Amino acid sequence: MVLGRGKRVLTGALIVACLVIVGSRTPSGGPSAGSRSGEAVRHAVPNRVMTWNICNPCEENNADRAAEIARYAPQVIGLQEACTRDVESIRDHLERLHGLVYHVEYGMVLRSWGRCGGAPWSPDAYGEAILSAAPMTDVVSEEYPDGGSEDRGYMAVTTAVGGRSIRVFNTHLAERRQEAVRAEQVGVLSAVVARHRRAIVLGDFNAVPDAPELTRMWALAADADPQCRSGAAGDCRPTTDWQSKFDYVFLRGVAPLGHGVYPTPYSDHHLFRADLDTT
């Protein structure tokens, strides 16, 4: 009887040991997601924001997109031309491959099988997304009354940038050669931004800096590139493969500390980074 009891104790101990070993690993054999989460938030640059039109339809690898974002590790990034499943995949790669953990909110404006795939009777959603290392609250997603040739909209969240709570917008305006539509969209967006003393507006505006339809945005905010101003298109760093400045980080009540524009093989738009003084 004593010997049988000893065998049972030994067997139980071995089972517990195996469970502890297995439980300390993810299915891929790496550290658990919980052990990476705190490290990821610490390593995101707390006062850095980015905007990036990731291109759609483009058959790019989401691991490559995640690697581009991880290279600069922004606190907040606004994505345009995004599909929900691509954004989820990018977020998963950022955590699993780079130890960067982000919260995600969406500003989807349409469901499109042609844009995003999915079952014909249940296509994936397409529009904008914001990834933030800090939680986001007061999420708003609105379509513009007139999207032009394709539905367009803006989204807004409240989150932490540089340790301060701030309202962050992300938008994608109507395609080129639709100036009147974009002017109406800027009117809608600027009226909402004007309610906030401090705000960051990210996005692809599909318009160069001296385009008349951006006048109301310039009246409210400045671009993170201090050389880029209304009527100064020649001094602005291009943000697209066709050498136009279409992508902006508009700042209202926030000062720029530095910026960078980074061409990438994974989109026809460059990544636009801005480091900010939110105090």
Helix fraction by DSSP (H/I, runs of at least 4): 25-40%
Low-confidence runs of at least 5 consecutive residues: 1-42
Q: Give the count of helical stretches.
A: 7
Q: How many DSSP E strands?
A: 14
Beta percentage is: 25-35%
Kindly describe this structure.
- The chain has seven helices and 14 strands.
- The strands form three sheets. A six-stranded mixed sheet has the order 3-6-2-1-14-13. Strands 7-8-9-10-12-11 form a six-stranded mixed sheet. A two-stranded antiparallel ribbon has the order 4-5.
- It has helices at 2-23, 33-43, 62-72, 84-98, 113-116, 179-193, 215-220; strands spanning 45-53, 74-83, 103-111, 118-119, 122-123, 125-132, 137-143, 153-161, 164-172, 199-204, 222-223, 247-252, 255-262, 271-277.
- The protein is globular.
- Helix 3 (62-72) packs across helix 4.
- By secondary structure, it is an alpha+beta fold.
- The chain starts with a helix and ends with a strand.
- 30% of the residues lie in helices and 34% in strands.
- Residues 1-42 have low confidence and may be disordered.
Concise overview:
This protein is α+β, with helices and mostly antiparallel strands. It is built from 7 helices and 14 strands. Helix 3 (62-72) links the parallel strand 1 and strand 2 (74-83).
Keywords:
disordered N terminus; 30% helix; globular; 279 residues; alpha+beta
Describe how the helices and strands are arranged.
Blueprint: H1 2-23, H2 33-43, E1 45-53, H3 62-72, E2 74-83, H4 84-98, E3 103-111, H5 113-116, E4 118-119, E5 122-123, E6 125-132, E7 137-143, E8 153-161, E9 164-172, H6 179-193, E10 199-204, H7 215-220, E11 222-223, E12 247-252, E13 255-262, E14 271-277
Parallel strand pairs: 1-2, 9-10
Antiparallel strand pairs: 1-14, 2-6, 3-6, 4-5, 7-8, 8-9, 10-12, 11-12, 13-14
Helix pairs in contact: 3-4
